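fwd from M.: "can u put these together and see what the complex looks like"

so here's what she sent:
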Amino acid sequence: MDNNHHHHHQFQKMQSYMEALEEEKRKIQVFQRELPLCLELVNQAIETCRQQLSGTTTENMQGGQSQCSDQTSTDGPVLEEFIPIKRICSASDDEEEEEGDEQHSHKKSKSDGAADKKKSDWLRSAQLWNQTTPGPTLQQEATPRRVSVVEVTRNGGAFQPFLRENKIPVKTSTSHDSDRQNKNNQSLIELHSPVPVTATSSTADTTTANGNGNGTRKEEKEGQTQRKQRRCWSPELHRRFLQSLQQLGGPHVATPKQIRELMKVDGLTNDEVKSHLQKYRLHTRRPSPTQHGGNSQAPQFVVVGGIWVPPPEYATVAASTTTTASGEAARPSPSSAGVYAPLAIAAAPQQRNPSKDHSPSHSEGRGSHSAGDAHSKSPSTSSSTHTATSSPVD
DNA sequence: AAATGAATAT
DNA sequence: AATATTCATT
């Protein structure tokens, strides 16, 4: 009766294998365009597997000869060697912090060992961040492929999902959701030649090292002041940007260099950050120039202790400000909270390495954290003897 | 010289 | 509108 056991064993293995394959397929499917053959292979494997499974108990099954053109002889158990069906995915990286990004609503408790799937980690490996397929004008078209999955210095995976999605005019201020929603972007990804690569042909095998240490761009030789490739601020990049921003205490005190350093994105230059910051600052200010003039009916904000707060609750704000401001400052919202507080004013220059060390302070979701621990000082002291009242005059 | 912010330029 | 580049200041 050993045979029985054996078969049984085989059977189970097969099943696991199948499952693994299926999952693999699911992953790959997203990249259909880029990895058509992969998909094909997996499909074949699955097919083969299925056949074997259906082959029932009958002794050695060897139906492998039908499809897989060159399956290397018939060894039924070819599969055995393939995969250690396991999730060894030691996702040791990932340094997401704060931001209620992940929706922990995993109710998918699949019967038993189905294991949990956390896809989305796998697609972090792509680099892609530049290049927006410029016009057919000039531009150096080099580097055919070489997608180099790099990530050498984890650039945070700033990518440009090219989901077509019509941009319905329902935008309106919005960058709000778009960021969060982007998690949706299960769609395809543009893998192309992200790295500048010294045009000029040949060799160039730069292999990773994309560090661009060389004077890739710029005039290299006099004369042509080629404009730099426009850095594309993908949501990911922007996210980093915002994060750094708040660690530094708001857009008005953060300096480009600091930001750049905090962002830890290699290849990112000061100027790029500077530029972005400038835009951000502008865009963040008085976003609604529409109808200005006499709406002095209800003062939108009041200065308390040096920070702008909405009138109705500045009693409590004092402390929550940190949370609110820093948490939301990111999202300049016209009507509600377009304020950022120069936090970091009183507190020591809290500069934590984005790598570790994170006090579990706010893991808040959307709700509200109303005063948890806050009171320290009394704002009432009319802090700025003269500051108040005088609204910023332009 | 290098960093920064504002003004331009594309 | 979004980036890049130039300009003036420190």
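replying to her w this: The CA atoms of residues 128 and 283 of chain A lie 26 Å apart.
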